[in-house]
Amino acid sequence: MQVPLEITYNHVSQSDWIDEYIKERAEHLDNMCDNLISCRVTIEREQHSQHTGNLYRAQVEVSLPPKKHLVGDKKGVVEDMHVQLRPIIRKAFEAVEKQLKKETARRRGDVKQHENSYESHAFVVRLFPDEDYGFIKSPIDGQEYYFHRNAVLHDDFERLHPGTQVRFEAEMGEKGPQASTVQIIDKPGVRVPEEGEEAIEQPDDWKKQ
Protein backbone atom coordinates (compact mmCIF):
# COMPACT_ATOMS: atom_id res chain seq x y z
CA MET A 1 0.00 0.00 0.00
CA GLN A 2 1.51 3.28 -1.12
CA VAL A 3 -0.19 5.43 1.55
CA PRO A 4 -0.34 4.38 5.23
CA LEU A 5 -3.66 3.03 6.50
CA GLU A 6 -5.94 5.79 7.78
CA ILE A 7 -8.45 5.11 10.57
CA THR A 8 -10.96 7.76 11.63
CA TYR A 9 -13.31 7.66 14.63
CA ASN A 10 -16.43 9.83 14.72
CA HIS A 11 -18.29 9.92 18.03
CA VAL A 12 -16.48 6.72 18.97
CA SER A 13 -13.55 6.41 21.34
CA GLN A 14 -10.36 5.07 19.78
CA SER A 15 -9.82 1.43 20.66
CA ASP A 16 -6.67 -0.69 20.31
CA TRP A 17 -8.61 -3.84 19.48
CA ILE A 18 -10.52 -2.06 16.73
CA ASP A 19 -7.26 -0.68 15.33
CA GLU A 20 -5.67 -4.14 15.33
CA TYR A 21 -8.65 -5.77 13.68
CA ILE A 22 -8.79 -3.10 10.96
CA LYS A 23 -5.04 -3.48 10.35
CA GLU A 24 -5.48 -7.24 9.88
CA ARG A 25 -8.28 -6.74 7.37
CA ALA A 26 -6.36 -3.99 5.55
CA GLU A 27 -3.28 -6.22 5.25
CA HIS A 28 -5.47 -8.86 3.66
CA LEU A 29 -6.69 -6.30 1.10
CA ASP A 30 -3.11 -5.25 0.40
CA ASN A 31 -2.15 -8.88 -0.24
CA MET A 32 -5.03 -9.23 -2.68
CA CYS A 33 -3.81 -6.38 -4.87
CA ASP A 34 -0.23 -5.38 -5.62
CA ASN A 35 -1.03 -1.79 -6.62
CA LEU A 36 -3.35 -0.66 -3.83
CA ILE A 37 -2.79 3.05 -3.26
CA SER A 38 -4.62 3.69 0.01
CA CYS A 39 -7.17 2.41 2.48
CA ARG A 40 -9.29 4.71 4.63
CA VAL A 41 -11.58 3.33 7.32
CA THR A 42 -14.18 5.32 9.22
CA ILE A 43 -15.90 4.05 12.35
CA GLU A 44 -18.70 6.23 13.61
CA ARG A 45 -21.74 6.27 15.84
CA GLU A 46 -24.64 8.06 14.25
CA GLN A 47 -26.20 10.83 16.26
CA HIS A 48 -29.94 11.29 16.80
CA SER A 49 -30.68 7.75 15.68
CA GLN A 50 -34.26 6.55 15.83
CA HIS A 51 -33.10 3.03 16.60
CA THR A 52 -33.50 1.61 20.07
CA GLY A 53 -29.77 0.92 20.32
CA ASN A 54 -26.68 2.79 19.15
CA LEU A 55 -26.39 2.76 15.36
CA TYR A 56 -22.80 2.32 14.18
CA ARG A 57 -21.36 2.55 10.70
CA ALA A 58 -18.14 1.17 9.24
CA GLN A 59 -16.97 2.52 5.90
CA VAL A 60 -13.95 1.20 4.02
CA GLU A 61 -12.64 3.03 0.97
CA VAL A 62 -9.66 1.91 -1.09
CA SER A 63 -8.15 3.54 -4.14
CA LEU A 64 -6.44 1.99 -7.16
CA PRO A 65 -4.77 3.55 -10.15
CA PRO A 66 -5.99 5.28 -12.20
CA LYS A 67 -8.50 7.11 -9.97
CA LYS A 68 -10.50 3.99 -9.12
CA HIS A 69 -12.32 3.95 -5.78
CA LEU A 70 -14.02 1.00 -4.10
CA VAL A 71 -16.28 1.54 -1.09
CA GLY A 72 -17.81 -0.83 1.44
CA ASP A 73 -20.36 0.61 3.85
CA LYS A 74 -22.20 -1.30 6.58
CA LYS A 75 -24.39 -0.26 9.49
CA GLY A 76 -25.78 -2.01 12.53
CA VAL A 77 -27.20 -1.49 15.98
CA VAL A 78 -24.56 -2.09 18.65
CA GLU A 79 -25.14 -2.67 22.33
CA ASP A 80 -21.96 -4.66 23.03
CA MET A 81 -18.97 -3.16 21.20
CA HIS A 82 -16.77 -6.25 21.39
CA VAL A 83 -19.49 -8.60 20.15
CA GLN A 84 -21.46 -6.58 17.59
CA LEU A 85 -19.07 -4.01 16.12
CA ARG A 86 -16.58 -6.50 14.73
CA PRO A 87 -19.10 -8.13 12.31
CA ILE A 88 -20.06 -4.68 10.98
CA ILE A 89 -16.41 -3.90 10.25
CA ARG A 90 -15.93 -7.35 8.72
CA LYS A 91 -18.91 -6.95 6.37
CA ALA A 92 -17.67 -3.54 5.20
CA PHE A 93 -14.28 -5.06 4.35
CA GLU A 94 -15.92 -8.08 2.69
CA ALA A 95 -17.92 -5.74 0.44
CA VAL A 96 -14.67 -4.11 -0.70
CA GLU A 97 -12.93 -7.49 -1.08
CA LYS A 98 -15.69 -8.65 -3.43
CA GLN A 99 -15.28 -5.53 -5.58
CA LEU A 100 -11.49 -5.82 -5.49
CA LYS A 101 -11.58 -9.45 -6.70
CA LYS A 102 -13.79 -8.43 -9.61
CA GLU A 103 -11.59 -5.47 -10.51
CA THR A 104 -8.38 -7.49 -10.22
CA ALA A 105 -9.81 -10.23 -12.45
CA ARG A 106 -10.89 -7.65 -15.02
CA ARG A 107 -7.43 -6.09 -15.10
CA ARG A 108 -5.80 -9.48 -15.49
CA GLY A 109 -8.02 -10.25 -18.46
CA ASP A 110 -9.97 -13.01 -16.71
CA VAL A 111 -13.14 -11.06 -17.51
CA LYS A 112 -13.48 -9.53 -20.97
CA GLN A 113 -13.93 -5.80 -20.97
CA HIS A 114 -17.12 -5.93 -23.04
CA GLU A 115 -18.86 -8.55 -20.92
CA ASN A 116 -21.53 -7.12 -18.61
CA SER A 117 -20.55 -3.69 -19.89
CA TYR A 118 -23.94 -2.21 -19.06
CA GLU A 119 -24.51 -3.86 -15.72
CA SER A 120 -22.58 -1.13 -13.94
CA HIS A 121 -24.55 1.75 -15.48
CA ALA A 122 -27.89 3.10 -14.34
CA PHE A 123 -29.99 6.24 -14.02
CA VAL A 124 -31.20 7.95 -10.86
CA VAL A 125 -34.98 7.53 -10.65
CA ARG A 126 -35.87 8.62 -7.10
CA LEU A 127 -34.13 10.71 -4.46
CA PHE A 128 -34.90 11.34 -0.79
CA PRO A 129 -32.35 14.04 0.14
CA ASP A 130 -33.74 14.59 3.63
CA GLU A 131 -33.14 10.92 4.42
CA ASP A 132 -29.83 10.61 2.55
CA TYR A 133 -30.77 7.88 0.10
CA GLY A 134 -32.21 7.21 -3.33
CA PHE A 135 -32.74 4.62 -6.06
CA ILE A 136 -31.10 4.03 -9.42
CA LYS A 137 -32.47 1.88 -12.22
CA SER A 138 -30.74 -0.29 -14.81
CA PRO A 139 -31.76 0.57 -18.39
CA ILE A 140 -31.16 -3.06 -19.39
CA ASP A 141 -33.35 -5.15 -17.11
CA GLY A 142 -35.24 -2.48 -15.14
CA GLN A 143 -33.68 -3.59 -11.84
CA GLU A 144 -33.70 -0.90 -9.15
CA TYR A 145 -30.90 -0.49 -6.61
CA TYR A 146 -31.01 1.34 -3.30
CA PHE A 147 -28.05 3.58 -2.51
CA HIS A 148 -27.08 5.73 0.47
CA ARG A 149 -25.42 9.14 0.40
CA ASN A 150 -22.21 7.57 1.75
CA ALA A 151 -21.99 5.29 -1.29
CA VAL A 152 -21.69 8.26 -3.68
CA LEU A 153 -18.07 9.04 -4.48
CA HIS A 154 -16.50 12.47 -4.07
CA ASP A 155 -19.40 13.67 -1.86
CA ASP A 156 -21.47 14.16 -5.02
CA PHE A 157 -24.85 13.23 -3.55
CA GLU A 158 -26.06 16.83 -3.82
CA ARG A 159 -25.31 16.82 -7.56
CA LEU A 160 -27.68 13.93 -8.25
CA HIS A 161 -31.04 14.50 -9.92
CA PRO A 162 -33.59 12.15 -11.54
CA GLY A 163 -32.08 11.17 -14.88
CA THR A 164 -28.43 11.49 -13.85
CA GLN A 165 -26.42 8.61 -15.30
CA VAL A 166 -24.08 6.82 -12.87
CA ARG A 167 -21.59 3.99 -12.72
CA PHE A 168 -21.85 1.68 -9.70
CA GLU A 169 -21.05 -1.66 -8.11
CA ALA A 170 -24.02 -3.92 -7.37
CA GLU A 171 -24.35 -6.06 -4.26
CA MET A 172 -27.08 -7.77 -2.30
CA GLY A 173 -27.98 -5.94 0.91
CA GLU A 174 -30.12 -7.02 3.82
CA LYS A 175 -33.25 -5.60 2.16
CA GLY A 176 -32.43 -6.37 -1.48
CA PRO A 177 -30.18 -5.11 -4.29
CA GLN A 178 -28.13 -2.06 -3.41
CA ALA A 179 -25.45 0.02 -5.07
CA SER A 180 -22.03 0.98 -3.79
CA THR A 181 -19.25 3.07 -5.31
CA VAL A 182 -21.79 5.26 -7.12
CA GLN A 183 -20.03 7.65 -9.49
CA ILE A 184 -21.63 10.30 -11.68
CA ILE A 185 -21.03 9.84 -15.42
CA ASP A 186 -23.03 12.81 -16.68
CA LYS A 187 -26.29 14.70 -16.51
CA PRO A 188 -29.22 13.70 -18.78
CA GLY A 189 -28.55 14.31 -22.45
CA VAL A 190 -24.93 15.46 -21.97
CA ARG A 191 -22.84 12.41 -22.72
CA VAL A 192 -21.89 11.57 -26.30
CA PRO A 193 -20.95 7.88 -26.74
CA GLU A 194 -17.35 7.26 -27.65
CA GLU A 195 -16.47 5.73 -30.99
CA GLY A 196 -17.59 2.11 -31.14
CA GLU A 197 -19.73 2.45 -28.00
CA GLU A 198 -23.49 2.01 -28.05
CA ALA A 199 -25.58 4.66 -26.34
CA ILE A 200 -27.29 3.69 -23.11
CA GLU A 201 -30.90 4.74 -23.28
CA GLN A 202 -32.63 6.31 -20.31
CA PRO A 203 -35.53 4.31 -18.81
CA ASP A 204 -38.82 5.41 -20.38
CA ASP A 205 -40.40 6.06 -17.03
CA TRP A 206 -37.63 7.91 -15.17
CA LYS A 207 -39.39 11.25 -15.54
CA LYS A 208 -42.48 9.79 -13.93
CA GLN A 209 -40.68 8.62 -10.81
UniProtKB/TrEMBL annotation:
InterPro entries: CSD, CSP_DNA-bd, NA-bd_OB-fold, RHF-like, RHF/RaiA. GO terms for molecular function: nucleic acid binding. Gene3D superfamilies: Nucleic acid-binding proteins, Ribosome hibernation promotion factor-like. Residues 119-184 form the CSD domain. Residues 172-209 are annotated as: Disordered. One of its GO terms (cellular component) is cytosol. It comes from the Bacteria. This is HPF/RaiA family ribosome-associated protein.
